[in-house]
Write a sequence for this structure.
């Protein structure tokens, strides 16, 4: 039986010293199937956790169509053949695939992780891949990538690599993800912005907080923090509701409007107002619109293989790092860093890539935003089932989905990032051969906006530094293989240019 005794008191973990109750009553079947009581959770916590995870992930239903598609050819990424993806269809498939895969993950892996179209891979497809291939061919590459990841999961290759990662790096991955989602929250809320010149980032606008949406973020973060500090059950969900109401009032009074070139201090992505028809029928026309091997014929086997290599490395290690951090944050990780149904989790996550490619919504993967639901108390796959059902419902209720502004969701991410950084105490900073790779892992993630990059930097540094320190006998052989793979991954740009 796993324990949550290392988690902070309050809504994040089970009450210490509490004894498991026998499944019974209306929740008896669910309790037995999902091991809710065994993991120190309750039906109420799983419900709240599933809802919170959905609302912190719901932005992808709005954002993914903006990245992959548009409402006209002039406003959408156009592929090499002049084709483009309609935003409404991408949005519908984003909801459908996220809902189906999150439910499947909850039922099979029994972990409180939500899946949706992965940010990073969708941008890679829209900005780079379709310059050489068509959209159906690009999605075919995503399917090939997913099939390979499923095979790695079924054969145990992914599990073997996971077990080979030293505990210091596993702890660093958790901390790095905490810093990463905190940075995401800061950027999404406008609390941190780019500068025209000088330092790469700054506080707010010119060093000051001047926008009302950012003020809503700050107030929401403080409300959630105060509720968590008080040990209030449902703190994050309550904070989201209160902050959304404040945002709706602020928009009603000040008429802030959406952010844009002429309105830099507006709401980013979602507006806290109900717009248009509440109910609409989804258009699922993109289902099955992929060409499995067309890109190999169009650009050649070597070039297509390099694209698949990039997708696999990004998907493989991004998801592995995310699941490592989430499992530790949920108190489900064992001493060696593994967690229940590890192999099943890896296989289903790979199927998410396959489903995303087949539905033209891009590769679906585990979302780090699931940490918000875990922070609300979610410990089992029931929370994922709830999140998935809400995603399916979002196909019909897109206006309701977009009521919660991203500034409010950002506050929840920063709060959970704080909790995840507690794992830094498990890193042995007294031994430099562990400290430097761990530090590079946790700092590279937020500064390069990539979990996979952080893992790669840590793996390479671990092999080099520990070899130099005479500890090469303690380096797992798989770490050498993966480190070499990451060297190729980091040099994929020049390698691709040479192949071209």
């Amino acid at each position: 039986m796993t324990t949550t005794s290392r988690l902070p008191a309050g809504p994040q973990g089970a009450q210490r010293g509490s004894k498991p109750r026998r499944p019974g009553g209306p929740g008896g079947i669910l309790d037995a199937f999902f091991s809710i009581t065994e993991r120190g959770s309750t039906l109420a916590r799983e419900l709240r956790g599933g809802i919170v995870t959905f609302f912190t992930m719901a932005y992808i239903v709005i954002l993914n169509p903006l990245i992959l598609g548009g409402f006209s050819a002039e406003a959408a990424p156009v592929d090499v053949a002049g084709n483009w993806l309609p935003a409404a269809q991408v949005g519908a498939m984003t909801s459908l695939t996220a809902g189906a895969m999150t439910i499947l993950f909850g039922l099979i892996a029994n972990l409180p992780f939500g899946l949706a179209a992965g940010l990073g891979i969708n941008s890679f497809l829209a900005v780079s891949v379709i310059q050489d291939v068509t959209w159906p061919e690009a999605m075919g590459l995503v399917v090939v990538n997913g099939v390979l990841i499923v095979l790695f999961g079924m054969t145990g290759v992914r599990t073997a690599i996971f077990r080979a990662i030293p505990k210091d790096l596993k702890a660093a991955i958790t901390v790095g993800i905490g810093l990463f989602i905190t940075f995401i929250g800061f950027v999404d809320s406008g609390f941190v912005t780019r500068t025209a010149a000088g330092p790469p980032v700054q506080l707010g606008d010119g060093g000051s907080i001047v926008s009302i949406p950012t003020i809503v973020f700050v107030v929401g973060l403080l409300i959630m923090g105060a509720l968590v500090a008080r040990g209030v059950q449902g703190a994050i969900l309550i904070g989201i509701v209160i902050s959304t109401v404040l945002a709706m009032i602020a928009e009603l009074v000040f008429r802030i409007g959406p952010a844009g070139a002429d309105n830099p201090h507006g709401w980013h992505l979602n507006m806290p107002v109900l717009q248009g028809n509440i109910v609409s029928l989804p258009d699922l026309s993109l289902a099955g619109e992929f060409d499995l091997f067309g890109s190999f014929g169009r650009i050649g086997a070597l070039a297509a293989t390099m694209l698949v290599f990039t997708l696999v490395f990004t998907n493989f290690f991004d998801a592995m790092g995310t699941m490592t951090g989430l499992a530790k944050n949920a108190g489900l990780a064992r001493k060696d860093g593994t967690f229940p149904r590890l192999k099943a989790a890896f296989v289903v996550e790979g199927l998410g890539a396959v489903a995303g490619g087949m539905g033209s919504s891009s590769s679906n993967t585990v979302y780090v935003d699931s940490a918000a639901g875990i922070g609300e108390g979610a410990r089992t796959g029931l929370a994922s089932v709830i999140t998935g059902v809400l995603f399916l419902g979002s196909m019909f209720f897109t206006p309701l989905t977009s009521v919660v502004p991203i500034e409010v969701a950002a506050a929840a991410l920063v709060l959970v990032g704080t909790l995840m950084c507690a794992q830094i105490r498990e890193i042995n900073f007294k031994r430099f051969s562990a400290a430097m790779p761990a530090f590079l892992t946790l700092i590279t993630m937020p500064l390069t906006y990539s979990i996979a990059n952080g893992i790669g930097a840590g793996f390479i540094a671990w092999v080099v530094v520990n070899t130099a320190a005479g500890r090469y006998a303690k380096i797992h052989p798989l770490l050498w293989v993966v480190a070499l793979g990451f060297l190729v991954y980091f040099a994929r740009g020049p390698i691709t240019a040479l192949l071209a």
Remarks:
- The mean pLDDT is 88.
